[in-house]
Amino acid sequence: MQKIGIGYEFFKEFLDKDLYYVDKTPLIADILEKGSKVTLITRPRRFGKTLALTMLRTFFEAEYDESGNVVDNRRYFEGKKIMEAGEEILSQMGAYPVINLSLKSAKQPDFVTAFIALREEIIDEYHKHNYLLKSDRLDEEDREKIRDVLQMEKEWRAWDRVGRSSEEREAQARNESGRFATALKPLSQALKKHHGKGVIILLDEYDVPLENAYYNGFYDEMVGFIRSLFESALKTNDALERAVITGCLRISKESIFTGLNNLKVNSMVDADFAEGFGFTPEETEAMLAAYGLSDKVEEVRRWYDGYLFGESEVYNPWSVTSYVDGKVNGKRRFPRPYWSNTSSNSIIRDLVEKADATMKEELGRLIEGGTIEKQIHEDITYDDIYASEDNLWNFLFFTGYMRKVSEREEGNSTFLTMRIPNNEISYIYENQIQRWFEKTIKKEDRSVLYKAIREKDCEEIGRYVTALLKKSISTFDSRESFYHGFFISLLYEMPDYVPRSNREVGDGRPDIVLYPENPTDPAYIFELKARKKFNEIHDGLDEALAQIEDRKYEDGILEDGYAGVISFALCFCKKSCVAGIK
């Protein structure tokens, strides 16, 4: 069996190392036939954008080795679907100079560090094309522009060896940022002169620096740099043949793509390039079959399917690949939320933490498998995320945390009915909600509850717990396991006591026992029940008290030598709790 390419992002590696590769080469023809001068393709993280751009580079690039000889990349496409595309498409293989820039390295804590990371990416492209310094098709002015950039790198490294203060380093970086923001234009003009062909520019994960800058407090600076980079390379550049940009989100034209009239945006709601990213059902089933996992098709569908690009059903490729790798290598018996580990999920965290009563109700409905309807629009900026509830839901949709079920038009507005795509994303929501609720509990003054327990004040216990439950999300407070975990978490900080859960006592296992550190103090038993209807809540209380009696929980604790024991019954219904004492 072919090795599974976990952690590999570059097209050539898949072929050179004989890794399992899902053939996405028809995207090349789609870009030529359906793309614009500048095409922005937005897809969620880990859906194959970097792999796609390195494939485009391998196909289009007139590449040279270190000796200056032309590299023939045709072998990478032998047997692939693109070879059936016809001569008009195939004649463009190896025909263009290419600039390929990844912006994901700019995920840094401050502007200067982020700029330096992008600066290194740009310098790497200059080094890749340093053969231009010997080109007799360039004049001295063209070559001097290239030398200037390479000389700045030498000076920077020399200064680093000597040692500079952080203030000097920052001042130098800011001074250079304007020059590097326009550095792709002279490189592309020199490439066009040398090759006699316009340049193809590929920009990967363009919005990573923007999202990172937003969360780290230097958004405006980064917007200014990226805007200048794009204007220089894509707007006023007569050497540009074609550009393809990838990212998660379409950032508002007004902030980044200013005046870029030759831009075509392709997002998850558009039909073009729909099968170029992610795995189709057929591709997923073929991969499972290749590794003897055809019996796992339904399990994989429940966990990793559910995305809709245009009208094409798509699986999460990172998760499917990770699932197969886990099975083949014997590391995982059950599905796991692989995608949840690829980013901070900060958008979901913020959604949950800022949720008002309406949003909590919507989140509960979604986790239970329901749907919500929201107006959809793509022209947003990070500054706009929290301007309205709809913007936040838009963000979640375009980053892969929601799936379109249906859509309708109303005037000039589009409304999508959406749901959570699959088990994997549902897990992410539930995990974030659980963490948020645990943080909420930690902020509460629990001394009120502990005092009520010691004073056997059942009314105050019920009132305190009910008040906390009203801050939860509805879907969770319909599960008895939630109530159990929720209540025991409230008891962990009770002074001089240690809570234990489901330990054998008497003739059974009480839900929770608070054991005193001093055996002369009483132990406390808590038996929990849940009911779906409010008129059954007192019946649940009676059942819990009877269970304490019938299974002799108190006798078991007294037999352990404790001086006394007090037994409480709690019954929950939705966001309400009542308490009783034996």
What is the CATH architecture annotation of the largest domain?
3-Layer(aba) Sandwich
Distance between the termini: 65 Å
Number of strands: 17
Instruction: List low-pLDDT spans.
Output: none
Short description:
This protein folds into four domains: about 25-265, Rossmann fold (3-Layer(aba) Sandwich), CATH 3.40.50; about 280-340, no CATH class; about 345-425, no CATH class; about 445-580, Trna Endonuclease, Chain: A, domain 1, CATH 3.40.1350. The radius of gyration is 30 Å and the shape is elongated.
Describe the structure.
With 582 residues, this protein is α/β, with parallel strands linked by helices. The chain folds into four domains: 23-266, Rossmann fold; 281-341, no CATH class; 346-427, no CATH class; 444-581, Trna Endonuclease, Chain: A, domain 1 (3-Layer(aba) Sandwich), CATH 3.40.1350. 45% of the residues lie in helices and 16% in strands. It contains 22 helices and 17 strands. The strands form five sheets. A five-stranded parallel beta sheet has the order 4-5-6-1-7. It has a five-stranded mixed beta sheet with strand order 13-14-15-16-17, sandwiched between helices. A three-stranded antiparallel beta sheet has the order 10-12-11. Helix 5 (111-128) crosses helix 7 and helix 6 packs across helix 8. The longest helix is centred in the N-terminal third of the chain and has 23 residues, at 140-162. The radius of gyration is 30 Å and the shape is elongated. The termini are far apart. The model has no long low-confidence stretch (mean pLDDT 89).
